[in-house]
Design a protein that fits this description.
About 40% of the residues lie in helices and about 15% in strands. It is an alpha/beta fold. Strands 1, 2, 3, 4, 5 and 6 form a 6-stranded parallel β-sheet that branches. Strands 7-8 form a two-stranded parallel ribbon. β3, α6 (about 130-135) and β4 form a beta-alpha-beta unit. It is globular. The protein starts with a helix and ends in a 6-residue tail after the last strand. The relative contact order is 0.10.
Amino acid sequence: MHPILRLLILTAAFAAAPVHADPALEHAKKVLEQSILFDGHNDLPWAIRGYEAAPGDVAAYDIRARAPGEGQTDIPRLRAGGVGAVFWSVYTPPEAPGNFARTQLEQIDIARRIIARYPDTFTLAGTAADIRAAKASGRIGGMLGMEGGHAIEDSLGALRAYYDLGVRYMTLTHNRHTNWADSAMEDPAKHGGLNALGEQVVHEMNRIGMLVDLSHTSPDTMRDALRVSEAPAIFSHSNVRALCEIPRRCLSGWLR
């Protein structure tokens, strides 16, 4: 028999053979159908802001198919991964002094425009009930997560305004100390954790219903926030210190 003909026959036989499902994958799919998988920190708004072809242009950065360039988030992959809800990170860099609030508002605007552009896929959510309703309607619920307390510019009023725009968690610091909390990435410590204003910020976050995010914070800031907070805190994108010794971590040896 001619080698090419043999190859064609073998290829056809392989294609017609029954595909045996992976039991673990099938189980995972069932779990995802019944549960809500939450992406706790997605940097798509920052990727769109820095998109070289059209900076900040939500329409140009189309995610209905494969994301442009090296982009890691698009609708096909969110759907394939069974993602049910997302915290869109509305990151504002702390390195350049001033204009924090302006950049923060622009980032919130980008995130909200992402949600609005794809109404069949996303919906803005402000509560757990909203997330459940999104799941029931076949959509992905979207909340906003601020990365870095510097963006409130020491103002509880700004904090409340960001909440009204959809922000549901705030990372107390990024890679720089704020005027009220120490970061894990800057030495030496400035406050020894949270100062009096920092405690007020945590209390106000508790009062309005904004999650306290302790990623990027120093160990003393973590301890102080957990002592002060009247609601559970989160670590949106951190590692367990006992497994990976890097500065952005949670205190696994202490949080027992």
